[in-house]
Amino acid sequence: MRLKISKKSVLFIVVAVLGTGVLMFVWYKNTHAMAKVEAFQVNAPAQASKLLIATQGSTFKNAITAHVVAHYKQDAVFISVIDVLGLPQIAAEDFEAILVVYAWEYQKPPTAVKTFLNRSAAFKNKMVILTTSGDGSSKMEGIDALTGESRLENSTTVSRLIIEKLAPLLN
Question: Where are the transmembrane segments (predicted)?
């Protein structure tokens, strides 16, 4: 006995599978996408040391940013906080230290981060990179980066590690 399947049935199944895939992608993107960070500055741009923090919006990443800003707020350090999407407009040579905090998404870094790090490779000695991912181990090849999961309970410990790495760049 042969089973006959009409072309309409096959087309319906293909459209249903594709539609489900699109809906799952949209759900995942909306559920797990990083929020955009509102840019702000702390202290006067005329300060001797300048720190750029390029980050994404999430509870964990916001906590890291808050810890680092609070630590350097009272020092003679100009701090500029931007969303990682603003990195293409940044000249690495304008800062004594650069902190980049981003999430590994879809098995790769955000395009703006990858482009900036590749373009600014000559200044990698002034950069501190924190890459977060589901398993906590993903990072760009050839980039010295701290890695971890976005666990709020670890934000103080991770912030201390970042501040230790930034200290020699800003003193």
Answer: 9-28
